[in-house]
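_Backbone structure tokens_
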Amino acid sequence: MIGILFHGPEIFDTGWGQKILELSGECKPECMLGGTMGRTAVIDHALEGAVEVPGLKPSGCLRELAIRCNRIIIASYAKSQNSGHVFAATIMERAGIGGPTIFLECNSMTLAAWNQPDHELLDLFGAEGFRMVEPYKDGGSIWAGGGDVLRRVRAAEPGDFILLNGIIVGEAVSEDVVIVSRNGQIIDIRGANIKQHGVEHLGEVDLRNIKIDSTRSIRGTEYTPRRVDRESGTGVAFINHSAFDIYEAAKGISGAVAVGDDTSAICADILYRFNIPVLGIVDGDRDALLNSNLASKGSVKLVVKSDDEFGSVVQDKIFNGRNRIEMDFNDVVEWVAQLADDEGLLVDRMM
């Protein structure tokens, strides 16, 4: 049995995910995917029945597939050959699986093999034009010094956003980006311009195990959103600078309040598929991590002087510190707008 781990939305938007499924044989392969935008691409391409999204990290998906399957394919369409192979090496190291595994990097048309070679799969994808390269070797990306923990972002390029657990904490100005933490707090990001408000939202972190991404866009390929019928929900979710939690937060809701320019754009784009409106609380500092203006009918954008400051007020006074309340979405919109006006923070309201 073949197990396939897909990574990222681009593998589906370019058609490679579907082609790999077709090439993998007559028996239906076990397929998994980790990641929010990859899950969105699965919906857009109507692949929900073919690709499982268990909510695990990629390394967790890989371990699960290794239990069910005797040979594994990892497939991505990365921003560069180096980026793709760094990703594959990282999750192979963390998953610790021992069976035949090949990695297909479909942008550069390269492949790498781990453990004992699976000649049938190597010949299959070699015939499709994939060129074999040596697996990426980690020269040591995490180390300690003077009480600090340091971690190199191995595939960063100037202009990339640096994300920790899905939160933007900086923008790379060099290919050599090193994150420094002390006592669980990020204190420096060498080779990048730090976005302090993102660092503050992270709180305490374990730099050795935190998920790190470097990218200019979380979905850099063209796509057509697919609307999905679903039962109408109740209640309103509160999403504060953490759009990548949206699928879990959005279960059974009628609307969402999102804090942050990029968070609002990402939430609105994803929830457009389910006809769920979003109230976006923004202050105009969007990084355009996702180049999308999709939003369901009834969505509203409130431009305030500081989305961080006002988001805290909203969660405290309206959501009572929680991440969900049972209220009508339109009532929440009116309450939030009035609160912003009362606080003297409302700059503009755009329907």
